[in-house]
C-alpha cells in the first residue's frame, strides 16, 4: 500500500512533534514517523525492572522557547515548584546550591566567606549570559553569506547584544572559549564549590573542565533556566512525559497523522529531490518534503543513497564529533537512600559525587585514549522522589549519569561483559561511598553504555547531544558548515533535530526553525519579543 | 630630575620594544630604550653560555617577523640574515622516521611511504592553511576595534572586519572558524590518518601554551605558527645567523640609525606620573628620566602591577590583569656537544641534521606529556623541538663541535612543590634520557648542559611565569581581549603610558607586530 503526504517528519521527540505541528497548522498534510512504540524521543521512559521506570536522558527536561509554545499552541507544562538544587556530596563533605541565592550563599559561607559573597554576582552573570544565548537560539544561526535582507535580523541581535552592557558583552565573548575551570577560578576559592558547578560544562562534551569551550557548554545548559539555578532546568510537574503528551495533543489538533513503531529504512531521492520515505516493512510513503529530526549522521549516512551527496558534504557529516562518552546506570531501590548530613530536600535535585576539579579532569582523561574512566564522574538523581509512580509503592529509582565512557573502547573494541562489569562496579562504588548501605538496597540495576543508548534511542554513537556541544559545532557550524539553515543538498530534505541550531536542550527549537524554513517563512527577528 | 627629556622612553629592550623605538625614532621622535640586562633582546638573545659555544638561549627560530617591519626598518642592511631550516624529521617508535624536506616532491614521496592518502591530503591542507594565514594576515596588522564601542573608528573597524570576513567566502570563513575554536588534534583528524604526521603537525599547536593537542583552542596556535613568512613563503622557519640575538641587534641598530638612544643595565623601577599622566621613569639606581611618553614592552602583569601602582588603575583593569593567564609551560635545554648525535632511524650525518628534529611520535605521546603537566609535573616523556644551529651557522660552536637547542614541553611553571636545583636537573635528565631513546650516542657527546625551566625564564628575562608569549594565545586572550577587554589598543588608563609587548595584539613569537602597531598608535595621537 502506498500513501502520499505533503510532508513527512521523522522522529517523535520534541523536535519532531513541534515541527509536525507547525507544518500541520500551516495546512500541510503531515505524517510523523516514530521508530519506537512510544513518542517522546529522549524523554521516553525506560522500564528497566518490573514496575521501575526512568527517563535517563531527560533528567534535565530542557527549555521550551515561549514563542515556539505559542505558535504551535502547545499547552506548556508546568515545572515543579519545589527546590531542585545541585548538591555535591563527597567523602564526608557536602554543599547544596539552592535556587534561592541567599540560601545558597549561606550554605557556601562555611567553606569560604569570599565565595559566599561572590555567589550572587556569579549566578546573576551566568543568568545574563545564558539569557543572551536564548536570544540567539530563537532565530536561525547568523551566516556570513546571509542575504542582505537578513542583515536586519543581525541588527536586532546586535542591539540585544549591546543591551547586555559593556562589561557583560565582553564577558560573554570571553566566557565562550574559556574552560569552566578558569571561569570558576576567576570567582571562587572553594574546591568543593567549584566541583559542584563544573560538571554543568561537561554535559554533551568529551572534554574535562580544563578544556576550552566548557564555559560555553555550561551556559548552554542554563538556557531557559530559572534565576538562581546553577544547573539545568526544573523537571515538569507532571512527570518526564508531560511535554510529550502536550506536544502530541497539539500535533493531533493540527491534523498530524502519527505512526509509532515505524522505522525508516531509507529516504527515496529522485533527481536530487525527495521522492518519499520507505519504512522497514517495505512500505513506501510518497512525499516531496521530509523533515528529519534524527541526527545528521543517521539521516545522511543511514538513509540517503550516497550517490546524491557530494563527497565534501559526506566528509563533513562523517567528521561531526558524536562523543558524549556518557553512560547511565539505572537502579531499582528497596527504599529511599539517605546521605548522612543531608536533608531529604537536598536530594531532590542533582547530586554530584566528584569532589574536585582535578578528579573531574582525571575522569575525562581516559576518554582521550579510548578507555573508560576508572573513577568516572557520577551524578545521581532520584526521580521517584518527585514522581512516585515511577517505582512501586515505597520503592525508589536512582539514575546515575556517568562520564566518561566512550562509545568505542581503545583500538575500536566493543564493550564486552567484563568492561560493562568494571564500569558498573565503579559507579556502584562511587555511590556506595556516600550512601551507606546503598548496595543492600539495590534490587536491580541496568547499565546503558553508549552503544545501548544508540540502539535504544537511535542516537549515533549514543550521543544525546546529536554532536558535541563545542564551539566549532554550534551556530552556523551546526550540523555542518554551510548547511546550518535546515535545508540540505537534497531538495525537500530538511534537518530539524538537536543536531541543528540551536542544539540539544532547546525543546522544539531546531524543529520549529526547520519547519519555518521548509514553509519558506521569513525568519523571526531576534529583536522581536519572545 | 635628569635634564635630558625625551619624547619617548621605551621600557625593555626586547624585540617589540626595539621595534617601537625604531618606528618612533624613524618618525623623528627622540627615543630612549632602557634595558635591565647587560644585553639587548629580551627573550631573543644570543649568549656564549659556555666558552666558544653560543646559544639562542630562549627563542631560537624565527618565521613570524612581520615583512613590513623588515622593509620599513631595512633590517637586512643592519644584519638580519635568516638561514632556512628546511626539514623536519620525526623519529618513530618502530625505528622508522617521518620527514618533510625542502623539496616538496621528496616530501610527497616520503609521505606516500607512510600513507598515500595523507600525501594527497597534505597538498590540499597546505593550500587551505595558506589561505587561512592570508585571511588572518590583515587582522595581525590592524589595531583591534572595541566591539562595545560606538565610536566611528571602532564601528568602521568592525565593518571593515565584517567586510573582510564576507570577502573570504563562506567556505574559508568556516574553515577559519574551525581553526579558531577546535583542538589541533580534532582539526588534523579531519585531514589525515597517519598518527605521527598528525602529532608532528599538532605540535605547532601546543608550543608555548598550556594546552594539549586535544584541547580546544590549540588549532589557533597551530595557525599562529603557520603565519610565519620568510621571503614570502608561509610556514618557513629560519635561523638567524649569529643566533636570535642578532635579530634584536639588527633592530637596535636600525633604531640607532634613526637616532634612538639605547641604554643597557638600566632597570626601570617605576613609571613616574603626575595627575594621571606619565612624566618619565625612575630607575632602580634612583635616577629619574623625564619623557612625554612612556612605553612598556614588559608583559601585562609587570606593566600594570609593577611599573605603576594598581591603585592608579580602574578596578576592572586590575581584575582583568589578575585573570590574565600566563602559565608558562615550556623549558629549554641547551647542549654543547663534542660531536653530532646519531639518530637510530637515520644514522650518520645527513641533511636531516640541518633541520628540526621533532620528538612527537604520536598524538597520545603528546597528550600524555600534557597530562603530566596538567597535574603539576614536568613531562616524563616530553615533546621536543630540536635544532643544531652550528650545522647551519658554524660560527655558533668551536670547529668540530656543536650546539643543540632543545625546546621542551611540558614544564609547568607551577610545578608541584616548586622548582629547585634538583628538580631542574631531573627535568634535564628526562630530556636527555628521552632523546637518548632516539639517539643513543647523545649522552656521551654532551660537554655542557644548560637547563632552563619556566622559573628560570622568568628570573632571567622577566617574563611572568616564564610564558614565552607574554600570556597565553588563548581565544579569550586574543585580539580585542588582549591583554584585557577594553585595554587592547596599546593605551593604558595613565595618560602618555603605553604598552607594546607581546601581551598585546597580535601576540608572541619574534613577530614585532605589537611593537609596530603600538608605535603607529602613539604617533597617531601626535605624541
TrEMBL record, chain B:
GO molecular function: oxidoreductase activity
InterPro entries the record matches: Amino_oxidase, FAD/NAD-bd_sf
Signal peptide: none
Amine oxidase domain boundaries: 17-519
Subunit structure: Interacts with COX5B; this interaction may contribute to localize PYROXD2 to the inner face of the inner mitochondrial membrane.
PANTHER family for the chain: PHYTOENE DEHYDROGENASE (PTHR10668), PYRIDINE NUCLEOTIDE-DISULFIDE OXIDOREDUCTASE DOMAIN-CONTAINING PROTEIN 2 (PTHR10668:SF103)
Role: Probable oxidoreductase that may play a role as regulator of mitochondrial function.
Name this protein carries in UniProt: Pyridine nucleotide-disulfide oxidoreductase domain-containing protein 2
Taxonomic lineage from the root: Bacteria, Candidatus Eiseniibacteriota
Amino acid at each position: 500500500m502506498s500513501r502520499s503526504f505533503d510532508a513527512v517528519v521523522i522522529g517523535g521527540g520534541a523536535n519532531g512533534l513541534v515541527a509536525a505541528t507547525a507544518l500541520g497548522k500551516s495546512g500541510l498534510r503531515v505524517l510523523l514517523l516514530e521508530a519506537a512504540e512510544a513518542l517522546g524521543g529522549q524523554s521516553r521512559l525506560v522500564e528497566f525492572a518490573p514496575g521501575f521506570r526512568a527517563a535517563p536522558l531527560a533528567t534535565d527536561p530542557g527549555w521550551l522557547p515561549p514563542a515556539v509554545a505559542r505558535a504551535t499552541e502547545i499547552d506548556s507544562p508546568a515545572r515543579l515548584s519545589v527546590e531542585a538544587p545541585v548538591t555535591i556530596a563527597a567523602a564526608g563533605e557536602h554543599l547544596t546550591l539552592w535556587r534561592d541565592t541567599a540560601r545558597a550563599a549561606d550554605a557556601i559561607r562555611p567553606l569560604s566567606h569570599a565565595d559566599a559573597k561572590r555567589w550572587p554576582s556569579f549566578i546573576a552573570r551566568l543568568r545574563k549570559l545564558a539569557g543572551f544565548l536564548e536570544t540567539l537560539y530563537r532565530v536561525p544561526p547568523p551566516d556570513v553569506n546571509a542575504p542582505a535582507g537578513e542583515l536586519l535580523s543581525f541588527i536586532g541581535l546586535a542591539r540585544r547584544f549591546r543591551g547586555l552592557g559593556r562589561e557583560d558583552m565582553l564577558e560573554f565573548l570571553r566566557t565562550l572559549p574559556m574552560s569552566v575551570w578558569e571561569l570558576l577560578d576567576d570567582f571562587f576559592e572553594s574546591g568543593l564549590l567549584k566541583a559542584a558547578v563544573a560538571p554543568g560544562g561537561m554535559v554533551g562534551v568529551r572534554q574535562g573542565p580544563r578544556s576550552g569551550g566548557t564555559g560555553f557548554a555550561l551556559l548552554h545548559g542554563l538556557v531557559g533556566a530559572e534565576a538562581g539555578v546553577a544547573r539545568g532546568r526544573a523537571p515538569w510537574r507532571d512527570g518526564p512525559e508531560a511535554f510529550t503528551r502536550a506536544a502530541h495533543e497539539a500535533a493531533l489538533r493540527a491534523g498530524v497523522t502519527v505512526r509509532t513503531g515505524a522505522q525508516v529504512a531509507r529516504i527515496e531521492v529522485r533527481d536530487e529531490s525527495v521522492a518519499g520515505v520507505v519504512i522497514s516493512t517495505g512500505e513506501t510513503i510518497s512525499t516531496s518534503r521530509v523533515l528529519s529530526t534524527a541526527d545528521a549522521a543517521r539521516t545522511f549516512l543511514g538513509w540517503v543513497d550516497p550517490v546524491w551527496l557530494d563527497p565534501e558534504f559526506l566528509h563533513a557529516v562523517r567528521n561531526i564529533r558524536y562523543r558524549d562518552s556518557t553512560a547511565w546506570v539505572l537502579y531499582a531501590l528497596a527504599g529511599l537512600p539517605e546521605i548522612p548530613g543531608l536533608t531529604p530536600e537536598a536530594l531532590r535535585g542533582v547530586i554530584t559525587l566528584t569532589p574536585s576539579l582535578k578528579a573531574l579532569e582525571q575522569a575525562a582523561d581516559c576518554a582521550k585514549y579510548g578507555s573508560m574512566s576508572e573513577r568516572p564522574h557520577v551524578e545521581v538523581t532520584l526521580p521517584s522522589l518527585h514522581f512516585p509512580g515511577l517505582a512501586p509503592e515505597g520503592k525508589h529509582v536512582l539514575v546515575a549519569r556517568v562520564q566518561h565512557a566512550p562509545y568505542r573502547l581503545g583500538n575500536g573494541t566493543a564493550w564486552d561483559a567484563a568492561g560493562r562489569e568494571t564500569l558498573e562496579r565503579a559507579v556502584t562504588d562511587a555511590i556506595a561511598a556516600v550512601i551507606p548501605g546503598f548496595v543492600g538496597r539495590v534490587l536491580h540495576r541496568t547499565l546503558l553504555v553508549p552503544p545501548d543508548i544508540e540502539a535504544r534511542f537511535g542516537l549515533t554513537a549514543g550521543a544525546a547531544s546529536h554532536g558535541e556541544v563545542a564551539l566549532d559545532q554550534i551556530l552556523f557550524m551546526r550540523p555542518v558548515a554551510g548547511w546550518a539553515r535546515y535545508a540540505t543538498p537534497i531538495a525537500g530534505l530538511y534537518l530539524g533535530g538537536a543536531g541543528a541550531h540551536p542544539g540539544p536542550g532547546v525543546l522544539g527549537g531546531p524543529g520549529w526553525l526547520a519547519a519555518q524554513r521548509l514553509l519558506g517563512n521569513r525568519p523571526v527577528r531576534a529583536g522581536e519579543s519572545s | 630630575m635628569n635634564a635630558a627629556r625625551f619624547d619617548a622612553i621605551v621600557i625593555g629592550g626586547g624585540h617589540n620594544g626595539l621595534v617601537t623605538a625604531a618606528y618612533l625614532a624613524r618618525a623623528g621622535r627622540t627615543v630612549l630604550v632602557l634595558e635591565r640586562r647587560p644585553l639587548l633582546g629580551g627573550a631573543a638573545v644570543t649568549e656564549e653560555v659556555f666558552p666558544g659555544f653560543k646559544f639562542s638561549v630562549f627563542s631560537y627560530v624565527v618565521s613570524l617577523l612581520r615583512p613590513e617591519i623588515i622593509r620599513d626598518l631595512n633590517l637586512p642592511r643592519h644584519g638580519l640574515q635568516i638561514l632556512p631550516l628546511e626539514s623536519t624529521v620525526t623519529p618513530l617508535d618502530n625505528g622508522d622516521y617521518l620527514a618533510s624536506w625542502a623539496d616538496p616532491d621528496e616530501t610527497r614521496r616520503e609521505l606516500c611511504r607512510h600513507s598515500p592518502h595523507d600525501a594527497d591530503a597534505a597538498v590540499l591542507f597546505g593550500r587551505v592553511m595558506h589561505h587561512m594565514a592570508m585571511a588572518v594576515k590583515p587582522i595581525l596588522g590592524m589595531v583591534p576595534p572595541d566591539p562595545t564601542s560606538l565610536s566611528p573608528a571602532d564601528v568602521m573597524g568592525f565593518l571593515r572586519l565584517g567586510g573582510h570576513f564576507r570577502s573570504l567566502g563562506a567556505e574559508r570563513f568556516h574553515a577559519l572558524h574551525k581553526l579558531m575554536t577546535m583542538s589541533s588534534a580534532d582539526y588534523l583528524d579531519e585531514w589525515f590518518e597517519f598518527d605521527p604526521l598528525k602529532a608532528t603537525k599538532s605540535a605547532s599547536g601546543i608550543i608555548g601554551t598550556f594546552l594539549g593537542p586535544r584541547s580546544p583552542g590549540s588549532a589557533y596556535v597551530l595557525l599562529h605558527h603557520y603565519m610565519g613568512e620568510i621571503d614570502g613563503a608561509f610556514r618557513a622557519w629560519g635561523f638567524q645567523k649569529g643566533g636570535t640575538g642578532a635579530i634584536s641587534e639588527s633592530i637596535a641598530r636600525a633604531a640607532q640609525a634613526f637616532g634612538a638612544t639605547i641604554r643597557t643595565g638600566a632597570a626601570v623601577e617605576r613609571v613616574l606620573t603626575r595627575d594621571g599622566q606619565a612624566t618619565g621613569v625612575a630607575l632602580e639606581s634612583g635616577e629619574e628620566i623625564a619623557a612625554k611618553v612612556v612605553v612598556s614592552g614588559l608583559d601585562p602583569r609587570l606593566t600594570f602591577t609593577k611599573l605603576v601602582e594598581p591603585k592608579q588603575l580602574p578596578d576592572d583593569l586590575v581584575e582583568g590583569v589578575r585573570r590574565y593567564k600566563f602559565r608558562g609551560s615550556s623549558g629549554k635545554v641547551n647542549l654543547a656537544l663534542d660531536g653530532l648525535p646519531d639518530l637510530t632511524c637515520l644514522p650518520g650525518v645527513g641533511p636531516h641534521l640541518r633541520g628540526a628534529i621533532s620528538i612527537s611520535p604520536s598524538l597520545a605521546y603528546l597528550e600524555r606529556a600534557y597530562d603530566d603537566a596538567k597535574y603539576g609535573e614536568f613531562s616524563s616523556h616530553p615533546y621536543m623541538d630540536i635544532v643544531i644551529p652550528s650545522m647551519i651557522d658554524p660560527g655558533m660552536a668551536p670547529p668540530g663541535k656543536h650546539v643543540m637547542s632543545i625546546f621542551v614541553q611540558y614544564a609547568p611553571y607551577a610545578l608541584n612543590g616548586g622548582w629547585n636545583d634538583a628538580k631542574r636537573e631531573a627535568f634535564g635528565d628526562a630530556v636527555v634520557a628521552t632523546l637518548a631513546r632516539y639517539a643513543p650516542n647523545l649522552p656521551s657527546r654532551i660537554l655542557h648542559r644548560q637547563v632552563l625551566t619556566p622559573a628560570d625564564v622568568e628570573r632571567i628575562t622577566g617574563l611572568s611565569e616564564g610564558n614565552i608569549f607574554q600570556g597565553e594565545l588563548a581565544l579569550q586572550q586574543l585580539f580585542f581581549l588582549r591583554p584585557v577587554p577594553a585595554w587592547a589598543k596599546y593605551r593604558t588608563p595613565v595618560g602618555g603610558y603605553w604598552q607594546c609587548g607581546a601581551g598585546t595584539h597580535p601576540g608572541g613569537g619574534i613577530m614585532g607586530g605589537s611593537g609596530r602597531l603600538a608605535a603607529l598608535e602613539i604617533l597617531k595621537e601626535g605624541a
